[in-house]
Design a protein that fits this description.
globular; alpha/beta
């Protein structure tokens, strides 16, 4: 029958120009270019369904609703308020009935299809709880015209208030809450102040009229300060007046046989009374269901907690376009509310980034977004975004007429804070020093003192989670993590400042993180390297805050120097080169009179990161200072480290004689002090030097000894480095298959560790192997990945190499014009950075340039080369990333 129904309807919709947007079960969502054709299609469909001979003499009844408005495209689907309203109009009808909105009626009333008339059914409040909709019924002589009253709010017993604004998003949440209420009788919506619990509860309740014959009833508990008044407040909401009897008995008698949904809103300040009443009523009233909202669970047997999430937000790394912004509920809410104050407001290419930032920085909290949108009447979106650092002052003026704690963000947070115990308040405000989340161990280490014992932190933290002030994250490398939404954290930070504890808490925060980083440091050379890197990266925002406090604290320079030195391996492996270098250089400049081993370590770390960015002049200055200081201190381990770094730099500069001398001295010193890591690293550099001199046998012995030593240490990252160098040696010997195997093994390890720089380098080498065996398309794909990673890392020396590699690959697929342009662009970028053509490409480069010149002819080759040289670095990168299997033309200038 369903298939037959769909066949009949589709034929009629197509005949009248309808476009089928979506079909689910027996329902259709169809868009028409003209309102008159939509009405004609609806009438024809009802006539066909009514007159059709259905199997077994069955009758099929279909309700239809029509509305005219604007739909926003989201993929292949329409979304938006008018789509929502159409669904509400349809839901109000009965099988066989056709309903149209006032907007549709206005378009068709003077041009009705033959036999069609409109019956005025009056204004009705639909389930979206907003403005009433004037609804008309389409009648026709061949169709039934008498139906029961519309299933609107006006026809159902309820006390849900009219809402003055539209409800945005939450489709998944509503579906899940309704599913829960179909299986349990008490669901509590749980979340921080401003999360939209009340509005979501009322919207779900409005959607559930068909489930509860005796209606849905809202009980507002926020104004109730005396717990003893909770039963009376529920009775008043139900309209019960029997002063001579005990209120709970009246409620029991009234609800005992009724199918009814109670919405208990804002239970947190009368939590026990709400829980006691709910328990009693649920036990004695079998058809009663309760939907509660609270910042803390009721703790009633059978209760299911539903955590109300923030509204959907765009990726912080990629602002949406004006066309895609409406896909995110947080942005839709901001725009919808902003137009109440400035009707002409729209999302444009100029303000979409600011609107996205506003919604992100307000954590997708509906109340905060609505309050920010209200400021659009006097500020631009960009100005609002710029002022959100002081968000509680900016968002102080809320709409009049709501509950006091819903009127401003400050009031909403004050409401939660005032309900806490003294110990809970103390922990809550102290947790504000954490940025980006924290572990239980961190909370205990930083926040416990004589006023809060370490053993009590877990219990207090659990209570803050229960009260929706702290959020629990998925377990990561360091176990379960917690965080405060940034808006909540800013409030707690204001309270911490007011308490006078902020300086001492920041110092404790820094000292805890320093201890953690130094505890992690030796583990970064062992078998659990990845786990410890993940743990450090999880705390990166906290480390940044600790380093910043070290900068501000007059007595924090030494701690900052040690912390930066301990974090250098994280910055090196995970690609935070520019940031790590900046922190180290700043701290070194402020501790110039320090003569400690910590300074040697920091100088070496800064030199290593600076080398990554190709600034070899500064590398030499840093390493020479470190070398002199380590020798002055008698720090042989630090001296060996300096020599190895200088050896690596000499290799980069292709000064292999100096590299051999420095690394040989570093090897001897590392062996003297028993530094296996330094020994292995010096051996690897000597192996690289031997390879460049053509002594493959010696190179292999040195590299394999280094590899064995590093495997024994369990240092995955260093093992991968040596595998790449063995791959280079094997490729030199002409064994491309074995070289590729070594690169693949290294690539898997680098990906496991998240080392983007070495992923890029290894993919480059895999591309060279692919090119050597004639697989230019695979080589091009690998080079594209390399370029993307180099660009992400802002690797000024690596980018020209990737562009040059793409030029070589282009010649392999006979894209000679593209190749010439890329050769010219790569040359200009190398000149700008002082980089040379890498040894691995020198022979290939000269051969590919000659092939390209011969294919194009000298004049055209030089012209295309010049086009590439004139391109800006950004334009050259963009051009290089355009993949094409066909010959390409000259890029736009």
């Amino acid at each position: 029958m369903l298939e037959e129904q769909q066949r009949l309807l589709r034929g009629i919709f197509n005949e009248h120009g309808g476009h089928e947007v979506d079909t689910q079960g027996d329902s259709f969502f169809v868009a028409f270019p003209l309102a008159r054709e939509a009405v004609a299609a609806a009438v024809a469909a009802q006539r066909t369904i009514t007159s059709h001979s259905w199997a077994h003499g069955a009758q099929v009844r279909i309700r239809m609703g029509l509305h005219t408005g604007e739909g926003l495209l989201a993929g292949d689907d329409y979304v938006g308020l008018d789509v929502h309203r159409t669904a509400r109009i349809t839901a109000a009808g009965h099988g066989g009935q056709i309903l149209v909105s006032h907007a549709t009626r206005g378009l068709i009333e003077h041009d009705l299809p033959d036999g069609v008339e409109l019956l005025d059914l009056g204004a009705h409040r639909l389930k979206d709880l907003q403005r009433p909709e004037h609804i008309f019924q389409v009648t026709h002589p061949d169709l039934p015209s008498r139906f029961p009253p519309l299933r609107s709010l006006d026809a159902m017993p309820n006390n849900l208030p009219v809402q003055l604004t539209t409800f945005i998003g939450r489709e998944r949440e509503m579906a899940e809450i309704k599913r829960l209420l179909s299986t349990v009788r008490l669901v509590t919506l749980h979340g921080p102040g401003g999360a939209g619990k009340t509005r979501l509860a009322m919207q779900v309740a409005a959607d559930l009229f068909d489930w509860y014959h005796d209606g849905v009833w809202l009980v507002e508990l926020a104004p109730v300060a005396d717990p003893g008044l909770v039963p009376q407040t529920v009775a008043s909401a139900l309209g019960l007046r029997e002063p001579a009897r005990v209120v709970t008995e009246v409620l029991n008698d009234f609800l005992a046989t009724r199918a009814l949904l109670l919405v208990l809103d804002n239970c947190e300040q009368v939590l026990k009374a709400s829980a006691d009443l709910s328990t009693m009523l649920l036990r004695s009233c079998p058809q009663l269901s309760i939907l509660a909202t609270s910042r803390e669970s009721l703790g009633v047997p059978g209760e299911v907690i539903f955590n109300v999430p923030s509204l959907a937000l765009p990726d912080p790394e990629h602002a949406p376009s004006p066309e895609t912004a409406s896909q995110y509920a947080a942005i839709r809410l901001f725009v919808e509310r902003a137009t109440l104050y400035r009707p002409e407001f729209t999302v444009t290419t100029l303000n979409v980034q600011a609107v996205s930032e506003i919604c992100r920085r307000l954590d997708g909290i509906p109340l905060a977004i609505e309050l920010a949108a209200a400021r659009i009447k006097i500020l631009s979106a960009e100005q609002i975004a710029a002022r959100l650092e002081d968000r509680f002052r900016l968002l102080a003026a809320g709409p009049r007429g709501g509950l006091p704690h819903h009127q401003t963000l400050q009031a909403a947070m004050d409401w939660s804070y005032d309900l806490l115990s003294d110990a809970e308040r103390t922990l809550f405000r102290r947790l504000a020093v954490f940025i980006g989340g924290f572990t239980l161990e961190a909370a205990e280490g930083v926040c416990a003192d004589q006023s809060i014992e370490t053993l009590n932190v877990l219990d207090l933290l659990a209570r803050l989670v229960d009260k929706s002030l702290v959020t629990v994250d998925e377990a990561g490398a360091s176990g379960v993590r917690y965080h405060l939404l940034e808006t909540v954290r800013q409030y707690a930070l204001d309270r911490l400042r007011a308490s006078g504890e902020i300086d001492s808490l920041r110092a404790r925060h820094r000292d805890f993180l320093l201890s953690f980083a130094e505890r992690a440091e030796p583990e970064l050379q062992g078998p659990r390297q990845k786990d410890w890197l993940d743990q450090l990266e999880a705390e990166h925002d906290n480390f940044r805050a600790a380093l910043e406090w070290s900068r501000l604290d007059p007595g924090g320079s030494d701690a900052g120097l040690r912390l930066a030195g301990a974090l250098s391996w994280l910055w090196e492996v995970r690609g935070y080169w520019a940031e790590g270098r900046a922190w180290l250089m700043d701290i070194l400049s402020r501790t110039g009179d320090s003569s400690t081993a910590a300074r040697v370590k920091a100088l070496n770390a800064a030199a290593s990161l600076t080398m990554r960015q190709g600034d070899f002049a500064q590398v030499e200055a840093l390493t020479n200072e470190s070398l002199a200081l380590s020798r002055q201190l008698g720090d042989r381990r630090g001296t060996a480290s300096c020599l190895v770094i200088l050896g690596v730099q000499a290799c980069h500069m292709e000064n292999y004689r100096e590299a051999e001398s420095l690394s040989g001295e570093g090897l001897s010193l590392s062996q003297e002090v028993g530094d296996n890591w330094g020994t292995a690293w010096a051996q690897s550099i000597l192996g690289i030097v031997a390879r460049t001199k053509g002594d493959h046998a010696k190179a292999r012995v040195l590299l394999e000894e280094s590899l064995a030593r590093l495997r024994a240490l369990g240092n995955t990252w260093a093992v991968a480095i040596i595998l790449v160098n063995l791959g280079l040696l094997t490729r030199d010997e002409g064994d491309y298959m074995q070289a590729a195997s070594l690169y693949e093994e290294a690539l898997a390890l680098f990906r496991q560790l998240g080392d983007k720089a070495h992923i890029a380098y290894t993919e480059l080498n895999l591309g060279i192997v692919a090119s050597a065996v004639g697989n230019y398309e695979q080589a091009g794909a690998l080079y594209q990945d390399t370029l993307a990673l180099r660009k992400e890392l802002q690797d000024k020396r690596g980018i020209p190499t990737a562009v040059l590699a793409l030029a070589c690959a282009a010649t392999g697929v006979r894209q000679f014009k593209r190749a010439a342009i890329l050769f010219g662009a790569a040359e200009a970028m190398r000149e700008a950075t002082g980089a040379s053509i890498p040894p691995i490409f020198k022979d290939e480069y000269e051969r590919r340039v000659a092939v390209t010149s011969d294919a194009l002819g000298d004049a055209e080759f030089r012209a295309d080369w010049s086009v590439g040289r004139r391109m800006s670095a950004e334009a050259a990168i963009e051009f290089a990333r355009v993949e094409s299997r066909q010959e390409v033309g000259t890029p736009p200038r």
